[in-house]
What we know:
Largest sheet: 31 strands, mixed
Radius of gyration: 29 Å
Distance between the termini: 77 Å
Helix content: 25-40%
Oligomer: single chain
Strand content: 25-35%
Structural class: alpha/beta
Amino acid sequence: MNTRSLGKKEIARLEANGCSSTDWGSVRVAAAFEPGDNIRDSSFSGRVVLGSFAGEFFAPSGLPERPGIMRARLHDAAVGDNALVRDAVLARTDVGEQALVDRVDRIAAIGKTAYGNGMAANVLTEHGGRSVPLWRRLSSQLAHLLCHLKGSPEAAALVALVEADVAGIESARSFIGARSRVERSGLLVNVRLEEGSLVLGAAGLNDCHLAGRPGAPAVVGAGVAACGCVFLAGSSTIGGVRLERCLVGEGVELKRGFSAEHSLFFANCAFAQGEAASAMCGPFVDSHHKATLVLTCQTSFSTFGSMANGSNNHFKIGPLHGGVLRRGAKPGSGSYLFWPADIGAFSTVIGRHLSNLDTADFPFSLVVGEGARTTLAPGVAVFGSGVWRDERKWLARDRRGGIDKPLDLYTLSAMSPFVMQSMDRGVAKLAAAAARGGDFRTGGAVVPEGRFDPARALYSAAALVHVGRRALEAARRKNGGRPPTLIELLAVFSLRDDGRAGGDWRDWGGLLVSGDDAEAFFADLRDGRIASPEELDERFALLHGRYLENEWLWLAGRWRTERGEPDAGKVARFLREVRDAVVFRLECLKKDVLKEFSTGSRYGYGLERDGDADFAQSRGVAEEHAAYVEMEKETLALLDGLDSVIEEGGRA
């Protein structure tokens, strides 16, 4: 902004409007500045810069507002064109154009600050052994790497990228971005609000960055108190939330008195009323219960039941232990886990568990605590309606629609090479246990002998369905989207990995990456070929963008390992196996839905009329329920695709 000194007449007009300054010579104004009656009853000290205040704008309430400075105190502050500062104190603060600052105790800067960026969040272990720096560009996949690569050259390279960016935003001033709104709030110290940010009724913010984007602001609402926190685009933190050393990621909702410290919440997490400490959550983790404590654990795509809890203190040398709930794992109401523990993907935890558990090789399981014993039922949820619903509800609950190039990248599919590799290890363990006979003890849990064969059958059927479905999809991607022929399917089963899809697959905070791609990524970090935050984001986007292609290369390789080199006969026979598994899956899904309409589900209905009629009126009929209809529709479409190729194979 080009500025000039005030003229004598302008100073006289300002003083007539009730304004004062310790030194009018230190007040600079825009060339078009005019001291009208919209600048009144205010005092200026230190170096003050004022823009031009003309016209009007509309506040979020819809009321027209006239820009200006009214009943304010400004010390070493700048106010941009057409902004409104009213009933507020600003010290060492810059206000952007068309911003609104109204009824705010004080906005100030004390010393040099990076607004929470660079501060360490002590996740997983409260003493800080796995701390992750808060950052305006922190993604779930980056946080995972920073947490789990401690002491490595790769971690050093990533930390250097973060620290260089943090150094670039350090300042001794607070910033209220253009078109931002700060209303009815308490003390704000060392804050940075990017364009369009909203602080509405906050109790107080200290060392905080609202790093929203135009069209996807970060919102901090009534009663919120936060210290050392970063709020990303599209996030909403309202209703008396209390935070210390936290990252509130894109599309995250925190509300109704939730409290957290040293925790990270990534894409589309939703928390209310409970509390979290040293947790790394996301994407899609939620909890809405007062008595729930999310403590020193890492998880994604998970729901915490009421009174779910974990313990990280062995009452010896302090709270050193953390746990992992792999993607989709759910601690049920009243569940208790004793850290350290590692719970398999898409498993449900019920009851209290008094030993350290490792069920990572048994996804889709039921983990039940019964006294001092934990019983594991492997694979029972793999064809459950809950997993089917999860995949669809995540799509519907993505709140990042206004964000171009979101930071958090993830794969929603419940089945994946990452999960299938764990499943394969579990099947091998069950086969060995069956050869020995008797119940199988593994990772602090007991698998009853009668569970061996059903688990292996469920895992096998799930693998068949997934490989068959992905084969059809891979062929369609190559032939322009039309139903594939047997020859086209044979071609995709013949595809060879070029060194990208092999190795142990990783889950980087929701982003699924092959072992080969992970090692290539690490090599580029060590060699300095990823040298900026932009290059890092581009590399993550590349890994995310080629997931489906890499997944199929891995699945095709797995298929050939099990069945040999493909030919038309082998592929046709395989598809017939897939068809049987798909029919079995649909039967399991429907059976699971029907449980929700069983006699036991009707208790509490019929207080004023026939119970069955009341239930039917309230809940409907199973066969007409949207989930039941959609399951059948999806399955019939898959069967049609399989049948056309199977029929062709029969003619060949």
